[in-house]
Amino acid sequence: MYVVVNAAMSADGKLSTRRREQIAISDPDDFDRVDQLRADSDAVMVGVGTVLADDPSLTVDDPDRREARTERGDSANPARVVADSRVRTPPDAKVLDGAAETYLLVSEAAPTDFVEEMEAAGAYVVATGEDRVDLTTALAKLEGEGVDQLMVEGGGELIFGLFEEGLVDELSVFVGPKILGGRDAPTLADGDGFVEKFPELDLTGVERLDDGVLLTWSVDGRTE
Ligand SMILES: NC(=O)C1=CN([C@@H]2O[C@H](COP(=O)(O)OP(=O)(O)OC[C@H]3O[C@@H](n4cnc5c(N)ncnc54)[C@H](O)[C@@H]3O)[C@@H](O)[C@H]2O)C=CC1
Ligand SMILES: Nc1nc(O)c(N)c(N[C@@H]2O[C@H](COP(=O)(O)O)[C@@H](O)[C@H]2O)n1
């Protein structure tokens, strides 16, 4: 499986405000690029923190891109994947609206009644890990379901978890012309942070998009 992490951050490295409110950091050209990346992927993943903060749809916006997918024999939208160890996804979340297949990655500690509620809402529930989703095993299971390219949109906890497990192949970050500030505002990679053996990146692209810059890296030492 090829894993590409894509996110937009402010010039000071924040994914959103300290209130965790969704905010447009990307400019129109970047949103269009993100839509194409979704259309090119088999699945789009977020953490439940993002579902709770943003209630994203994670679908492809451009009808021509959806049509191109169906013409090549794919579903109109990529599958949606939510890492949600304890099942905090609300049953009325947009990721459960039936517009695409949805996988809910939960831990073995997930309450059975919540799991059943998610299955009744149409989600495929994949349980791995004792208390927290075991991302390595969960992604291997998704690969077994035909997910060859996984796009990850965030947030910072999930992105850190994927780097921690050595699961990221490529990172693309749009740096937008805003300062958000806030010591508690989410950043590109939160979690516990690395203190040694930092993931190393190879810069593969620098491109001006509107008033921001798109930076792309490949990741050294991808282990899975
Ligand atoms: N600017 C951008 O491109 C984006 C911004 N965001 C912003 O990020 C914020 C949400 O980010 P976070 O609070 O960091 O939440 P998150 O979206 O990273 O979700 C974290 C949750 O994922 C679950 N999870 C399960 N297994 C995990 C594992 N092994 N490792 C890590 N997480 C695991 C846990 O329940 C954890 O609480 C929101 O404010 C949202 O607006 C989110 C996506 C993109
Ligand atoms: N690429 C990008 N740029 C921004 O400025 C953003 N705020 C985000 N946020 C991500 O997009 C999700 C919303 O998706 P839908 O439009 O609802 O499908 C949001 O949840 C973040 O993952 N991304």
TrEMBL record:
Segments of this protein annotated with the region Disordered: 54-79
Please provide the Gene Ontology terms (biological process) for this protein: riboflavin biosynthetic process
Its name, as the record gives it, is 2,5-diamino-6-(ribosylamino)-4(3H)-pyrimidinone 5'-phosphate reductase
Reaction catalysed by this enzyme: 2,5-diamino-6-(1-D-ribitylamino)pyrimidin-4(3H)-one 5'-phosphate + NAD(+) = 2,5-diamino-6-(1-D-ribosylamino)pyrimidin-4(3H)-one 5'-phosphate + NADH + H(+); 2,5-diamino-6-(1-D-ribitylamino)pyrimidin-4(3H)-one 5'-phosphate + NADP(+) = 2,5-diamino-6-(1-D-ribosylamino)pyrimidin-4(3H)-one 5'-phosphate + NADPH + H(+)
Question: Whom does it interact with, and what assembly results?
Answer: Homodimer.
Organism this protein belongs to: Haloarcula rubra
Task: Please give the family membership noted in the entry.
Answer: Belongs to the HTP reductase family.
Q: Pathway listed for it?
A: Cofactor biosynthesis; riboflavin biosynthesis
Would the keyword rRNA processing turn up in this protein's UniProt record? no
Where is this chain compositionally biased, Basic and acidic residues type?
A: 62-74
EC number(s) reported in the record: 1.1.1.302
Q: Which residues span the membrane?
A: none
Task: State the UniProt keywords alphabetically.
Answer: NADP, Oxidoreductase, Riboflavin biosynthesis
Q: Bacterial bifunctional deaminase-reductase C-terminal domain spans which residues?
A: 2-215
InterPro entries referenced in this protein's UniProt entry, alphabetically: DHFR-like_dom_sf, Rib_reduct_arc, RibD_C, RibDG_C, Riboflavin_Biosynth_HTPR
Q: Name one GO molecular function term.
A: NADP binding
